Amino acid sequence: MQIGLVGLGKMGGNMRERLRNAGHTVVGYDTNPELADVNSLVDLVEQLERPRAVWVMVPAGAATQSVIDQLGSLLRHGDTVIDGGNSRWTDDEKHAEELAKHGINFVDAGVSGGVWGLKNGYALMVGGEKEVVDDLKPIFDALKPEGPYGYVHAGKVGAGHFSKMVHNGIEYAMMQAYAEGWELLEKVDSVDNVREVFRSWQEGTVIRSWLLDLAVNALDEDHHLDNLRGYAQDSGEGRWTVEAAIDNAVPLPAITASLFARFASRQDDSPQMKMIAALRNQFGGHAVEAAKK
Which residues, other chains included, contact 104 with Cβ-Cβ below 8 Å and sequence gap of 6+? Predict the structure, then answer.
Protein backbone atom coordinates (compact mmCIF):
# COMPACT_ATOMS: atom_id res chain seq x y z
CA MET A 1 0.00 0.00 0.00
CA GLN A 2 1.08 3.60 -0.60
CA ILE A 3 0.87 6.31 2.07
CA GLY A 4 2.15 9.81 2.74
CA LEU A 5 3.66 10.59 6.14
CA VAL A 6 3.98 14.16 7.44
CA GLY A 7 6.33 14.59 10.42
CA LEU A 8 9.45 12.42 10.60
CA GLY A 9 10.60 13.03 14.18
CA LYS A 10 11.30 10.40 16.82
CA MET A 11 8.10 8.44 16.16
CA GLY A 12 7.28 9.45 12.60
CA GLY A 13 10.71 8.53 11.30
CA ASN A 14 10.57 5.10 12.92
CA MET A 15 7.05 4.55 11.63
CA ARG A 16 8.25 5.26 8.08
CA GLU A 17 10.99 2.65 8.50
CA ARG A 18 8.63 0.03 9.97
CA LEU A 19 6.12 0.54 7.15
CA ARG A 20 8.84 0.24 4.51
CA ASN A 21 10.18 -2.90 6.18
CA ALA A 22 6.68 -4.36 5.75
CA GLY A 23 6.73 -3.62 2.03
CA HIS A 24 4.64 -0.45 1.91
CA THR A 25 5.58 2.63 -0.12
CA VAL A 26 6.00 5.69 2.11
CA VAL A 27 6.48 9.24 0.88
CA GLY A 28 7.65 11.32 3.85
CA TYR A 29 7.73 15.07 4.39
CA ASP A 30 9.27 17.02 7.24
CA THR A 31 10.22 20.67 7.69
CA ASN A 32 13.77 19.36 8.21
CA PRO A 33 14.93 18.72 4.64
CA GLU A 34 17.52 16.20 5.84
CA LEU A 35 14.69 13.90 6.94
CA ALA A 36 12.26 14.45 4.07
CA ASP A 37 11.73 12.47 0.87
CA VAL A 38 10.09 15.44 -0.86
CA ASN A 39 10.41 19.21 -0.66
CA SER A 40 6.81 20.14 0.20
CA LEU A 41 3.32 18.90 0.95
CA VAL A 42 2.47 19.65 -2.67
CA ASP A 43 5.21 17.27 -3.81
CA LEU A 44 4.03 14.62 -1.35
CA VAL A 45 0.44 14.74 -2.60
CA GLU A 46 1.53 14.68 -6.25
CA GLN A 47 3.57 11.51 -5.72
CA LEU A 48 0.63 9.57 -4.26
CA GLU A 49 -1.88 7.66 -6.36
CA ARG A 50 -5.57 8.23 -5.72
CA PRO A 51 -7.33 7.53 -3.50
CA ARG A 52 -4.58 8.98 -1.35
CA ALA A 53 -3.94 8.43 2.35
CA VAL A 54 -1.79 10.87 4.34
CA TRP A 55 -0.75 10.19 7.94
CA VAL A 56 0.01 13.30 10.04
CA MET A 57 2.54 12.97 12.90
CA VAL A 58 3.15 16.54 14.09
CA PRO A 59 2.61 18.22 17.48
CA ALA A 60 -1.01 18.66 18.58
CA GLY A 61 -2.71 22.02 18.27
CA ALA A 62 -1.60 24.71 15.84
CA ALA A 63 0.90 22.53 13.96
CA THR A 64 -1.66 19.80 13.29
CA GLN A 65 -4.31 22.36 12.33
CA SER A 66 -1.94 23.98 9.84
CA VAL A 67 -1.10 20.69 8.13
CA ILE A 68 -4.74 19.62 7.96
CA ASP A 69 -5.73 23.00 6.51
CA GLN A 70 -3.10 22.59 3.78
CA LEU A 71 -4.11 19.00 3.04
CA GLY A 72 -7.74 20.11 2.82
CA SER A 73 -6.81 22.28 -0.15
CA LEU A 74 -4.51 19.73 -1.80
CA LEU A 75 -6.39 16.43 -1.46
CA ARG A 76 -9.52 15.46 -3.35
CA HIS A 77 -12.81 13.64 -2.84
CA GLY A 78 -12.24 10.12 -1.52
CA ASP A 79 -8.78 10.79 -0.09
CA THR A 80 -8.10 10.24 3.63
CA VAL A 81 -6.21 12.08 6.36
CA ILE A 82 -5.06 10.14 9.45
CA ASP A 83 -4.05 12.17 12.51
CA GLY A 84 -1.66 10.01 14.51
CA GLY A 85 -0.41 12.75 16.82
CA ASN A 86 -1.62 13.47 20.35
CA SER A 87 -4.53 15.69 19.34
CA ARG A 88 -7.45 16.28 21.66
CA TRP A 89 -10.50 14.25 20.65
CA THR A 90 -12.64 17.37 20.35
CA ASP A 91 -10.24 18.64 17.66
CA ASP A 92 -10.80 15.41 15.73
CA GLU A 93 -14.49 16.15 15.43
CA LYS A 94 -13.69 19.62 14.08
CA HIS A 95 -11.11 18.32 11.62
CA ALA A 96 -13.47 15.64 10.33
CA GLU A 97 -16.17 18.24 9.72
CA GLU A 98 -13.75 20.60 7.94
CA LEU A 99 -12.39 17.90 5.64
CA ALA A 100 -15.83 16.44 4.93
CA LYS A 101 -16.72 19.69 3.15
CA HIS A 102 -14.16 18.67 0.52
CA GLY A 103 -15.23 15.02 0.48
CA ILE A 104 -12.06 14.01 2.35
CA ASN A 105 -12.22 11.25 4.97
CA PHE A 106 -10.71 11.65 8.43
CA VAL A 107 -9.40 9.01 10.85
CA ASP A 108 -7.82 9.62 14.26
CA ALA A 109 -5.22 7.20 15.57
CA GLY A 110 -3.90 7.17 19.11
CA VAL A 111 -0.37 5.76 18.88
CA SER A 112 1.64 4.33 21.78
CA GLY A 113 5.08 2.80 21.61
CA GLY A 114 7.51 5.69 21.82
CA VAL A 115 11.09 5.16 20.70
CA TRP A 116 10.63 1.38 21.02
CA GLY A 117 7.89 1.17 18.37
CA LEU A 118 10.22 0.46 15.44
CA LYS A 119 11.30 -2.81 17.04
CA ASN A 120 8.25 -3.80 19.09
CA GLY A 121 5.41 -2.23 17.10
CA TYR A 122 2.92 0.47 18.04
CA ALA A 123 -0.32 0.03 19.96
CA LEU A 124 -3.01 1.68 17.83
CA MET A 125 -6.40 3.01 18.93
CA VAL A 126 -8.35 4.17 15.88
CA GLY A 127 -11.52 6.23 15.43
CA GLY A 128 -13.48 6.74 12.23
CA GLU A 129 -16.03 5.26 9.83
CA LYS A 130 -15.70 1.49 9.49
CA GLU A 131 -15.33 1.45 5.70
CA VAL A 132 -12.54 4.04 5.78
CA VAL A 133 -10.73 2.33 8.65
CA ASP A 134 -10.99 -1.08 6.96
CA ASP A 135 -9.32 0.32 3.82
CA LEU A 136 -6.33 1.35 5.96
CA LYS A 137 -6.02 -2.00 7.75
CA PRO A 138 -2.82 -3.04 5.91
CA ILE A 139 -1.09 0.05 7.32
CA PHE A 140 -2.36 -0.59 10.83
CA ASP A 141 -1.32 -4.25 10.62
CA ALA A 142 2.20 -3.25 9.62
CA LEU A 143 2.57 -0.79 12.50
CA LYS A 144 1.00 -2.87 15.30
CA PRO A 145 2.94 -5.44 17.34
CA GLU A 146 2.99 -9.03 16.15
CA GLY A 147 0.16 -11.21 17.45
CA PRO A 148 -3.58 -10.72 17.89
CA TYR A 149 -3.48 -7.62 20.08
CA GLY A 150 -2.24 -4.04 19.88
CA TYR A 151 -4.85 -2.66 17.48
CA VAL A 152 -8.46 -1.64 18.03
CA HIS A 153 -11.07 0.22 16.02
CA ALA A 154 -12.31 2.00 19.13
CA GLY A 155 -15.35 3.73 17.61
CA LYS A 156 -16.33 6.84 15.71
CA VAL A 157 -14.13 9.88 15.02
CA GLY A 158 -12.45 11.00 18.25
CA ALA A 159 -12.59 7.56 19.89
CA GLY A 160 -8.97 6.78 19.04
CA HIS A 161 -7.52 9.87 20.65
CA PHE A 162 -9.93 9.66 23.59
CA SER A 163 -8.74 6.08 24.25
CA LYS A 164 -5.09 7.14 23.98
CA MET A 165 -5.79 10.02 26.37
CA VAL A 166 -7.17 7.62 29.00
CA HIS A 167 -4.18 5.31 28.38
CA ASN A 168 -1.84 8.19 29.16
CA GLY A 169 -3.81 9.12 32.27
CA ILE A 170 -3.37 5.57 33.56
CA GLU A 171 0.32 5.81 32.65
CA TYR A 172 0.60 8.94 34.85
CA ALA A 173 -0.79 7.09 37.86
CA MET A 174 1.34 3.97 37.34
CA MET A 175 4.55 5.98 37.05
CA GLN A 176 3.64 7.95 40.16
CA ALA A 177 3.17 4.73 42.16
CA TYR A 178 6.56 3.38 41.11
CA ALA A 179 8.16 6.75 41.88
CA GLU A 180 6.66 6.95 45.37
CA GLY A 181 7.75 3.41 46.18
CA TRP A 182 11.25 4.12 44.91
CA GLU A 183 11.59 7.26 47.04
CA LEU A 184 10.43 5.46 50.18
CA LEU A 185 12.89 2.62 49.60
CA GLU A 186 15.70 5.13 49.07
CA LYS A 187 14.78 6.97 52.27
CA VAL A 188 15.15 4.14 54.80
CA ASP A 189 18.48 2.93 56.14
CA SER A 190 17.57 -0.77 56.17
CA VAL A 191 17.36 -1.12 52.37
CA ASP A 192 20.80 -0.70 50.83
CA ASN A 193 20.17 -1.85 47.23
CA VAL A 194 17.00 -0.28 45.90
CA ARG A 195 17.90 -0.99 42.29
CA GLU A 196 18.04 -4.74 42.93
CA VAL A 197 14.75 -4.61 44.84
CA PHE A 198 13.14 -3.13 41.73
CA ARG A 199 14.85 -5.80 39.61
CA SER A 200 13.51 -8.57 41.87
CA TRP A 201 9.96 -7.38 41.16
CA GLN A 202 10.34 -8.07 37.43
CA GLU A 203 9.46 -11.75 37.82
CA GLY A 204 6.61 -13.36 39.74
CA THR A 205 5.07 -10.21 41.24
CA VAL A 206 1.69 -8.63 40.55
CA ILE A 207 3.28 -5.24 39.82
CA ARG A 208 5.60 -6.41 37.03
CA SER A 209 5.19 -4.36 33.85
CA TRP A 210 7.09 -2.76 31.00
CA LEU A 211 7.27 0.46 33.04
CA LEU A 212 8.96 -1.50 35.82
CA ASP A 213 11.46 -2.88 33.29
CA LEU A 214 12.18 0.66 32.12
CA ALA A 215 12.64 1.81 35.72
CA VAL A 216 15.31 -0.86 36.15
CA ASN A 217 16.96 0.30 32.91
CA ALA A 218 17.05 3.86 34.26
CA LEU A 219 18.53 2.72 37.59
CA ASP A 220 21.18 0.68 35.77
CA GLU A 221 22.23 3.86 33.98
CA ASP A 222 22.15 6.05 37.12
CA HIS A 223 22.00 4.01 40.34
CA HIS A 224 20.29 6.69 42.48
CA LEU A 225 19.18 9.02 39.65
CA ASP A 226 21.64 11.57 40.99
CA ASN A 227 22.18 13.07 37.55
CA LEU A 228 18.52 14.02 37.04
CA ARG A 229 16.64 17.02 38.28
CA GLY A 230 13.33 16.14 39.98
CA TYR A 231 11.22 17.88 37.36
CA ALA A 232 8.66 16.23 35.09
CA GLN A 233 6.73 17.90 32.28
CA ASP A 234 3.19 16.93 31.30
CA SER A 235 2.24 16.68 27.62
CA GLY A 236 -1.45 17.53 28.01
CA GLU A 237 -3.25 14.18 28.01
CA GLY A 238 -3.28 13.98 31.82
CA ARG A 239 -5.04 17.34 32.05
CA TRP A 240 -7.53 16.36 29.35
CA THR A 241 -8.25 13.08 31.16
CA VAL A 242 -9.05 14.90 34.39
CA GLU A 243 -11.20 17.44 32.52
CA ALA A 244 -13.13 14.62 30.81
CA ALA A 245 -13.64 12.95 34.18
CA ILE A 246 -15.13 16.17 35.56
CA ASP A 247 -17.40 16.54 32.53
CA ASN A 248 -18.65 12.97 32.95
CA ALA A 249 -18.72 12.91 36.78
CA VAL A 250 -16.25 10.01 36.93
CA PRO A 251 -13.96 9.99 40.00
CA LEU A 252 -10.26 9.66 39.09
CA PRO A 253 -8.39 10.22 42.37
CA ALA A 254 -5.16 8.40 41.44
CA ILE A 255 -4.78 9.95 37.99
CA THR A 256 -5.67 13.41 39.29
CA ALA A 257 -3.17 13.13 42.15
CA SER A 258 -0.42 12.06 39.76
CA LEU A 259 -1.07 15.10 37.56
CA PHE A 260 -0.85 17.49 40.52
CA ALA A 261 2.33 15.74 41.67
CA ARG A 262 3.94 16.80 38.39
CA PHE A 263 2.88 20.37 39.04
CA ALA A 264 4.51 20.12 42.47
CA SER A 265 7.75 18.95 40.85
CA ARG A 266 8.17 22.35 39.23
CA GLN A 267 8.34 24.11 42.57
CA ASP A 268 11.21 22.15 44.13
CA ASP A 269 13.58 19.33 43.21
CA SER A 270 11.40 16.27 43.84
CA PRO A 271 13.02 12.83 44.31
CA GLN A 272 9.88 11.12 42.97
CA MET A 273 9.98 13.20 39.83
CA LYS A 274 13.48 11.96 39.09
CA MET A 275 11.94 8.53 38.53
CA ILE A 276 9.03 9.99 36.51
CA ALA A 277 11.51 11.91 34.34
CA ALA A 278 13.67 8.80 33.93
CA LEU A 279 10.68 6.68 32.87
CA ARG A 280 9.43 9.27 30.36
CA ASN A 281 12.93 9.37 28.87
CA GLN A 282 13.12 5.57 28.71
CA PHE A 283 9.84 4.91 26.91
CA GLY A 284 9.42 8.06 24.85
CA GLY A 285 12.82 9.70 24.56
CA HIS A 286 11.42 12.77 26.33
CA ALA A 287 14.00 15.32 27.42
CA VAL A 288 15.27 15.36 31.00
CA GLU A 289 16.88 18.14 32.98
CA ALA A 290 20.27 17.60 34.58
CA ALA A 291 20.59 17.88 38.32
CA LYS A 292 21.80 21.25 39.58
CA LYS A 293 25.43 21.24 40.63
Answer: 71, 72, 75, 76, 77, 78, 79, 80, 81
